[in-house]
Write the structure tokens for this entry.
Amino acid sequence: MLIRPMTDADVAVAEEISDDAFFALDTASRLPAAPAPERRSPAQRTAWRARTRGFLASDPDGSWIAEQDGEVVGFATSFLREQVWCLATFAVRPGLQGAGIGAQVLDAAVAYGADAPRGMLAASVDPRALRRYHLAGFRLHPQLTLRGSVDRSALPVVTGVRDGGPDDAAWMDDLDRLRRGGPHGPDHERLMAAGRLVVTTDRSGYAYTNGRVLALLAARDEQAAQTLLWECLAGAEERYELSHVTSANYWAVEAALAARLDLVARGYLGLRGMAPPSPYVHHGALL
């Protein structure tokens, strides 16, 4: 087994392994009422590869490949943002899990962030991966997902928000530092390109939404957080989803249930050296 740094030439096959692995996991662990798992669309595959190339540019020592007999069989991508290390993605080719591949490639990525006082990762329900995260020193916090059609009659009138833009990045980074210990920095550009940025007029919070999912939300207090979430729900398409909601962010559960979204438990937020941030709904890969 060869564990080596990821290069640009590895990105396409890493994306394929990731899509295969998570599709297989989602199919095997699908709840009866959950929508059928779907493969990534061409646009999603392109976005995944662009995001990963961004990690290689900003953190060339944070992403690693597991290679067996000249074939890529697993990978992990990670990055540092000041005081916080984040695991973006981690996957092993289906059919090869349980053979120690994942442990070796994850150890290489974790070592990159060993000196960071804080660490974050979004974990699936795969019990093998959860054991690895626990052994790596991460405390696992259950996450909630809320999804469904928004009851617009339940939405309040929202004031004090506006569309954001690049000029807002500096104060949003300061808010990120307050909530998780590090800015999103270059990730803001990717998030803005993928959807709408909503900010409060008093700079107390921001949220990214594309009309189908809440990608990320950070705020100074729960009132600002709920205001942003109401605005995102008001702009929802036929169905909307907010994932990665920890119990520390019950304000989001209250608003989403009031809008008649359905609630399920799904996945975990793994944390090292920090409590679950709040008010904060993290991004699955950019955390």
